[in-house]
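Give me the fold.
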Amino acid sequence: MRPSLFFTTSLSLSSNFIARSRVTAVRGLHEISRSDDGTVVVISPTDETHHSATVVLCHGLGDTAEGWIEPTQYLAKQLPHVKWILPTARTQPVTLNMGMSMPSWYDIIGLDSRSSEICNGLDESMVRILDLVENEVVGDESRVDTTAATATATTTCDSNSSLDYSRIVLAGFSQGGALALFTGMTQMRKKGSNNGLGLGGIVVMSGYLPRSSGFAIAPGSEKTPILHCHGKEDSVVPVQAAALSRERVSSLLKEMGAGNENSYEVKTYAGLDHSVSIDELNDVAAFLKQVIPPISDKSDEEVVDPTKMSVRQLRAEIEKRGLKEEARGMLKKSELVNLLLKHQKE
């Protein structure tokens, strides 16, 4: 296989997608913003009170966040309550590309299973993705440390929303999908916890499980649902990678006695090479609606769980219930949550 083929397919993702579909811009529902250095694109609900879930979506090798704006807008139209964070990997030499530099989450020295065990740079990329996740969880109560490694994440995700880990999904295409899968299932929460992330879900598109032999599921993440979408004609990452990844994850879940060995779902698409299709994106949207449904869809009679609400949603609910005076002076999210829980019991 010519090394250039690996990158050409990824780089042409957006144009291939647009050529095969008519994408309507998401006007009024979402707005696009970028970090000062241009390395992160955020597509967020125009009305911040509607934001109740976040998806961090990582591009493939040789691509950038810009290449995923159109497909993300297509998804955003179906999920108006979701904020989308699209980071761009740092540019670095890639061995498989004869040492030429390109956006890459980690170095790739070959396409065989043995080569995928090395992945130099994967740990650094996981730290960056974790910072993005933690920044969504922290919300406006405190911020991620503004070090050189986290500055981009901090400045990009500056919002007043504070989410539970179960309202966050990691997703990615190709190498980005590999990063999402490994990070979401192996990493621990940063806030002094011994638990895994316990995310709402993970989406892998045309990806694979990197460092398979050293892969270990963090306690608390064994219930995380996974959707793996893959083209049957993928000439870059063969469709067999989906089955192998599922087999490895499922075997570990069985060893842990998690009781959900079938939580890793694989969907394949006839005639699809190393790219995405409308059918695939519709399946992704359906999965996301299931694992991070809009809270606002609940009926007035149904009890809303304050622990799953953002700060803005908590304040809106408090005002709706006529508790604004009682909430005066409350600055922490935990205080607002406890106030609503107290009145739910009355």
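Confidence is low (pLDDT under 50) at residues 1-15, 18-26, 140-159, 297-301.
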